[in-house]
Structures are given as structure tokens and as C-alpha cells.
């Protein structure tokens, strides 16, 4: 697989690669079958000089298209569960709130809402469908492709994204996201480690330029290709923490 990927990549580099071809190659990169990790999410409000930290357990499968998150801390969020199931027909996002003892479905019209008070929206929690954007490579510089992705979906909170992608291993290290008025809304940066020849995200930093807030997610205890079945990703399983 890696040899064929290298040949394809070398061929495209020798030609004039299009933005769509680049986006497709990123989407086709090999990923683990599933992953488990612990996530520390730190929220900072610069204007109010406030800092909060929330801890979660994450289980995902199928390149992140299926995901369960469980909040461990702080006390007010303990037991909150989040379920994501993406499909070609419909994306399902659900949030279980222990205090209310019910499951809240996140509709497409509410996907721009903040995810648990962070600078990530529910839309940010979704994978991007390749055909929901038009693509253009703005330029190449210092070992990076600079790729513009223009949103086709009128319901998106964004008008476009500009991503810095390494030319050697096609990793997105930085991204600017613009609002509907084409003003810079969020700046995101990403860090990775290599595990079993795969590049895995270990940190995501999201800065809301307009609100002057930021969120840092740090991933630890990463485990990949373990025993994770499809039957885990059900709403009934949002109500209890999984055993390690």
C-alpha cells in the first residue's frame, strides 16, 4: 500500500496536481481501524482571564466516522456522553446530559453551536466530505501545499478554509477558517506522532480570533487497532463509561 501510495504521489508531483487531487490523496491516507485515547481539553478566555480543563475518554472507528466521547471531569460535566455516526445519507450527532437524563440530537441547523463550551463547533467534530468543497492550491512554499477549500454547503458556519499541508507526508499542520463574511474566524494548528507507521494527532489548538478565546486538546494513552465493535456506537452506550 505504501509503495503504491508513493508511486502515485511521485507521479502527481511530477504533473500539475489539482486541489481536488490533493484533497483526495489526504482522504485516502491509511488510518488505524480504530483508536482509544484520553483527551485533556483546556479552554482559555483571554479577555476574562479564565481557564478551564475538561477530561474525556475517546473511542473512534472507521477513520473517525464513528466516535464516542465520555466526560470524566469537571464534576459538572462528568457522565456527559457524545456520539457521532457519519454516513453518506445522514450524520448523526447526539449528546447525553446526565442531569436531564435524556439524549439531545444535534440538528444540522445547530451544528455551528459550541461543543461543550469550547472553540470547536459540532461541525468541527465532523469529517469533511470531499465533494462538499471546491479546491484550489494557492501556492507551494517551504515544503507546504497551501490549499483553499471553499464550502458548497450553505448551512456551514464557514465560507472557506486555508490549510498548510506538508508535501512529504500530507499532514495538515495549520488551518485558517473564515466565516460567512469572509473574515478570519478560527486558527487551528495540529501536532502528530508516528505509531505503527501511521501519523496520529496528539494535539489540536483552536483559537477563535473574533472572540479572543482558545481551546487546546491534548491526546494521551493512544491505543490503535484494538477490539472495538460497531455495536458500541449506540445511544444506549452513551450513558455509561466504558471499561478500559
Strand order of the largest sheet: 6-5-4-3-2-1-13-12-11-10-9-8-7
Taking pLDDT < 50 over at least 5 consecutive residues as the criterion, the unreliable ranges are: none
The level of helicity is: under 10%
**Strand percent estimate:** over 45%
Major beta sheet summary: 13 strands, antiparallel
Topology, number of strands: 13
Shape: globular
- Discrete helix count: 2
Helix-strand sequence = HHEEEEEEEEEEEEE
- Overall pLDDT confidence: 91
What is the C-alpha radius of gyration, as a whole number of Å?
A: 18 Å
Class based on secondary structure composition and strand pairing: mainly beta
User: What's the end-to-end separation, in Å?
Assistant: 32 Å
Give an overview in words.
It is a single chain. This protein is mainly beta. Helix content is 9%, strand content 46%. It is built from 2 helices and 13 strands; from the N terminus they run H-H-E-E-E-E-E-E-E-E-E-E-E-E-E. It has helices at 2-14, 19-27, and strands at 34-45, 50-61, 66-73, 81-85, 92-97, 102-105, 133-141, 144-151, 160-166, 172-178, 184-195, 198-208, 213-224. It has a 13-stranded antiparallel sheet, covered by helices on one side. The protein is globular. The chain starts with a helix and ends in a 20-residue tail after the last strand. The model has no long low-confidence stretch (mean pLDDT 91).
